[in-house]
Amino acid sequence: QVQLVESGGGLVQAGGSLRLSCAASGTSFSISAMGWYRQAPGQQRDLVARMRNDGTTNYADSVKGRFTISRDNAKNTVSLQMNSLEPGDTAVYYCNAEIWIGYYKQYWGQGTQVTVSS
User: Fold this and answer.
1) Region class of 63: left (phi > 0), else alpha (psi between -120 and 50), else beta
2) Can you give the pLDDT at residue 1?
3) How far apart are CA 107 and CA 6, in angstroms?
4) Residue 67: its pLDDT value, please?
5) What does the DSSP 8-state code read for residue 88?
6) Which H or E element spans position 4?
7) CA distance 31 to 47
8) What are the residue ranges in the chain where pLDDT is below 50?
9) How far is CA 52 from CA 16, 24, 30, 40, 42, in A?
């Protein structure tokens, strides 16, 4: 059973920083990509940042230059350093892992709240 355990998040003032971390366990298959998505109330869940095993990254336009994703492939962990936070970044942040099991399957963490006050 694959589990993604997130840590970090919380309440911060605009302009501040937070760091999210996520550790994956319970899989013997290689994780092809890990990343972060977020969902604000009444909104769909959207990609924030994602990193594949080869180091290629994707960022949402709204976070480019402010957020940085990093991975430790050997430890199956992913982190998201969030700087210059804005009230618009307020959302529940979900860790995601994509694992090839004959097809790509997505796994999700339980979510962690990030609230940015103005």
Assistant:
1) alpha
2) 86
3) 13
4) 98
5) G
6) strand 3-7
7) 18
8) none
9) 28, 15, 11, 25, 29
Neighbour count for residue 105 (Cβ, 10 Å) = 13
Report yes or no: 41 and 53 within 8 Å, Cβ to Cβ: no
Cα 105 from chain centre: 16
The CA–CA distances, whole Å, from 24 to 40, 44, 67, 83, 105 equal 24, 24, 21, 24, 14
Instruction: Report how far apart the first and last C-alpha atoms of the chain are (Å, whole number).
Output: 40
Structure tokens at 11: 């309440």
CA dihedral 12, 89, 59, 41 (to 10 degrees): 130
